[in-house]
Design goal:
This protein is mainly beta. The chain is 4% helix and 54% strand.
């Protein structure tokens, strides 16, 4: 691909003294335990996995040019689909006073809310990594950004599409029917070769951070067609207009994400908005406690491909602000149309300079059969422990 060729050309052109390359990264071991019996044949109650993510960075020309390479691989003893590798980042970046150019495989994040990132559409979700949707696959791209006073405007050309990952037959956190990731179908005749484009304008206006985005291309979230005993992903062509806004006022953060998405057959609106209030210095050691509340709405109602169409998220964030960077985030999502509920806790703490421990727990309860996504996961309560060693 042309973007990768530009990266390779940059690698050849730059000085390659080994002592100029910054090397870091992490290796990890992860244990998963599912307390409830599996719903579907072949699934088990837990397992181990190993991961590695090295990072190689090189800067030159007084920091105006840089090359970054971040590969990733996970081996999972239970689910062959979760054993996977990816190039999270392999890009060349060149900056001037008011411009920045990027070519290669990269990551871009848009959004401000906690419980769902509606407008974050550039990178595909790496679903097998984590159910929360925070992990992303690297996206081939060409990006050109013009810096403005207190803002920027960016153009993205995305020459290749990444399909979403899904758990295999032996994996937990999957639908009743296994997703056939080998036979995905597309609305576009170009399939994964379709060239997507996006525009993004960001601006800070006093206490308000504002973002407007437009995307034209292949939807990152597929629809599904049942073929025999499997689900086959179908990726539509869409046009999406997105808005994200955050107002900062003393201890308050007010947040909003909203979108309008259209395809050849229909269109819909969706939004998530709310606040986070921080109680600063609640202990003598300077710990902060944040209270979070967000509301989700989707005009598709029960036809939405997301379980968050008329739901409330309530959560709390605790940061001890200690030398070990101890943090905890806990929250619940309540469906206002039925009794479905989910609870999630994430905690992390460093031990020494090089070890980090991450603990996650998830409970899905009182699911309604009409809430198909959560109902299919009703026995997939999860406790997950990961130990990472950084270098």
């Amino acid at each position: 691909m042309k973007a990768l060729m530009l990266v390779l050309s940059a690698m050849v052109a730059m000085p390659l003294a080994a002592n100029d390359i910054e090397v870091s990264g992490n290796v990890g071991v992860e244990a998963r335990y599912f307390p409830q019996d599996a719903l579907y044949p072949g699934q088990e109650d837990g397992g181990l996995s190993l991961s590695i993510q090295p990072e190689f960075r090189r800067q030159w020309d007084n920091g105006r040019k840089s090359l970054t390479f971040i590969p990733f691989y996970r081996w999972d003893e239970k689910d062959d689909e979760r054993s996977h590798g990816d190039i999270r980042q392999l890009d060349f970046t060149m900056a001037s006073d008011n411009w920045e150019f990027q070519a290669g495989v990269g990551k871009v994040f848009w959004g401000v809310t906690e419980s769902q990132h509606l407008v974050d559409i550039i990178n595909q979700t790496d679903t097998v990594e984590n159910f929360d949707g925070e992990d992303k696959l690297g996206q081939p791209m060409l990006r050109m950004t013009r810096f403005l006073e207190n803002g920027s405007i960016g153009l993205f050309v995305l020459p290749y599409f990444r399909e979403r990952t899904f758990s295999g037959a032996e994996g937990r956190l999957r639908s009743p029917l296994v997703v056939d990731t080998d036979n995905a179908t597309y609305e576009s005749a170009d399939e994964e070769q379709h060239v997507d484009v996006a525009l993004r304008w960001e601006q800070t206006l006093d206490s308000v951070d504002l973002g407007l985005s437009y995307f034209d291309g292949t939807a990152r979230d597929p629809e599904f067609n049942q073929v025999g005993s499997t689900l086959v992903p179908y990726y539509r062509q869409i046009q999406q207009l997105g808005l994200d806004l955050q107002y900062t006022g003393d201890a308050w953060l007010w947040k909003l994400e909203a979108l309008r998405r259209e395809n050849a057959d229909t269109g819909y609106n969706a939004a998530v908005g709310g606040f986070e209030y921080t109680f600063a210095g609640i202990t003598e050691t300077g710990a902060d406690l944040g209270a979070i509340a967000e509301y989700h709405v989707d005009s598709r109602d029960e036809l939405a491909t997301s379980p968050l169409q008329n739901d409330v998220f309530l959560g709390a964030r605790l940061a001890l602000n200690d030398a070990e960077s101890t943090e905890l985030l806990a929250g619940t999502i309540l469906d206002l149309d039925n009794s479905s509920k989910s609870f999630r806790v994430e905690a992390s703490r460093r031990f020494g300079d090089n070890v980090k421990v991450n603990l996650e727990a998830q409970v899905i309860t009182d699911t309604d059969a009409e809430d198909a996504i959560l109902h299919g996961l009703r026995n997939d309560d999860l406790i997950q422990l990961e130990i990472q060693r950084y270098f």
